[in-house]
Amino acid sequence: MASSQDELVFLPLGGLGEIGMNAALYGFGSEANRQWILVDCGMGFGGEEQLPGIDLVYPDLRFIEEERHNLLGIFITHAHEDHIGALVEMWPRLRAPVYATKFAIGLLETRRLSEADAPKVDLNEIAPGQRLNLGPFDIEYVPVAHSIPESNALAIRTPQGLVVHTGDWKLDPTPYLGSLTSEEAFRKLGEEGVLALVCDSTNVVREGESPSEADVARNLATLIKDAPHRVAVTTFASNVARIRSVAEAARECDREVVVVGRAMDRVVEVAKECGYLDNLPEFRSAENFGYMPRDKVVAILTGSQGEPRAALARIASGEHPDISLTAGDRVIFSSRAIPGNEKGIGSIINSLIEQGVEVVTDRTELVHVSGHPRRGELAKMYEWTKPRIAVPAHGEPLHLAEHAKFARQQGVPEVVRAKNGTLVRLAPGKAEIIDTVPAGRVYKDGNIVIPAGERAIPERRKLAFAGIVTVAIALDDRGEIAGDPVVDVMGLPEKNRQGRDLTDIVADAVADLLDSLSKAKRRDPEAVENAVHRAVRAAVNQEWGKKPACHVLVIEV
To answer: Is 0.85 surpassed by the pTM of this model?
Structure first.
C-alpha cells in the first residue's frame, strides 16, 4: 500500500525534445526516500557542422548517477541504438542490473566485445510477456510490433497506479517477423485501469495507419526479380525482418546474398543465434561479390543514412576494397532519411546516378515503412488503454506539441507536456511538473566522454570557420628578438584580393608590432603574446574580413 507521502514520478533525461537518446526514469516514494528504475539508455548522432569531431551523443545522466544507490534496475524496451547505444559507455556510472530480451542482450554483448576495455555489464535476460517485481515496481514486458525483433512496451505497476510506457511501436497485422501489437493485451491493461500512457510521438503528424512490413516484402521481391543486373539493398542494420525478406526474395530469383558492413554483420550474427534467419541459404562475405555473375547476387549494405564511413558511401566513391557497382545495377534505399541526414544521402544518390546506377527510394516505390504509429494507430491505443494522463514522449518539440493536442482530442482528462529534465508527478493528485533537474547531453569525443559545455567544440567550429595562425617568437632576457619570428597559417586563403600572400601580411604585422614595443614590454612574455594576438587578428580581418584563431608562443632564450 502507498503511504500519503509516496509519489509516483516520471523524469525523462533523453528522448523528449529530440528523436533518439531515449532515457526515462520512474521513481516511487517520498521526496527524501525515492527508488528509481531507468527505461532505456540510448544515444544520438553528432553532426559535423554543429559538433565537429563528435560521432555520438549521450544523455546527461548526472541526476541518476548521484542517486544510483536508489536505482533498482535498467529496463531495455528494444535493441535500437537510440534505446541501447549509450548503455555500455554509461553503465559503469550506474552499475544497476540491466534487463533485456535475448536479442537485445546479444547485440549489447556483440557491441561490448567489439570495443576495447568495454565493461562487463550486468545483463539479465527477460522474455516478452514476463513480469518482474523490483522494489515497489512490478514491470511487465508487453510485446509490440516494431522494426526490430523483440520490441516491448512496459506495463509498470506501482501502489499509486499503472503506467504504460509504449516504447517504439506500431500496428501491423502482418509484421513479417516479430510480434504483433495485441489489441487484447492493451484492452486488458485499459480494463485494469491505466493511470498514465507515456507514448511514442514520432509519427503523430501523419494521418491514417502505416502500411505493413509484408507489403514492403512483396514490393522488394518484385524489384529484385525484375532487376537485370546486380541489386544492392541498403537498410537499417537492425531491421531483421527486412534482411529476411530480401534474402527470401533473392532465393526465389536464384540469387545469393552478400552482407556488407560491420553493423550488418553483427546483427546477422545475433539474428541467426536467435533463430530469426533460419531456413535461409548461407550468406556470403563481401570478398565473394566480384566473382559472382551480375544477375546472381544481392548485396545487403549498411549506409542507408549517408554515413561517410559505411559500406554504401565507400562504394559510391569507388573506395570499397571488395564491392563495386556499374551502369545498369540497381540500388534500393529500403529506409527513410532521419532528419539531418538528407545531405549525406543525397550526395551518395547523386554519385551513383552519375555512374549509371539505378536508384530506387521510398519516394517512388513502397520499399520502407516506419516502425512508429500514425494518428490512426495512436487513436486505437488511446481507445484501448483509456489513460487518465497522457505524456507524449519520443519526439522533437513539434511532435510532442502535436501529440499533446491529439491526446486531448481523444478525451484524455490530463495531458502533461514534459521535456528532458522535468520531474512529473503522476500520482497522487493532479498530474503536474513539480521540479526540474540537470539534463542535457554529453559527447563521445574519440575515446573520451566530455560535457556539452566543453570549450573544444566551439573552438573546433571557430577553426572550421576562420582557420588558425600560429606565431613563434624568441626573445632574450634584454627584450631583444633572437631571429625572425616563425609564422604558420592553416585554413586561410593563400592571397588577399590584391594577390598578396596572407602569410607575408601576418609576418609584417608581427614585425611591425614587435618594433613598436619598448624593450621593457618585450621583457614581459604575456604582454608580447597578447599584443601579437590582437595585431594578427586585426591584420587578417582587414584583408580577409574574418578573424582567425591565433596561437602565439613566446620563447625566452
So the answer is: yes
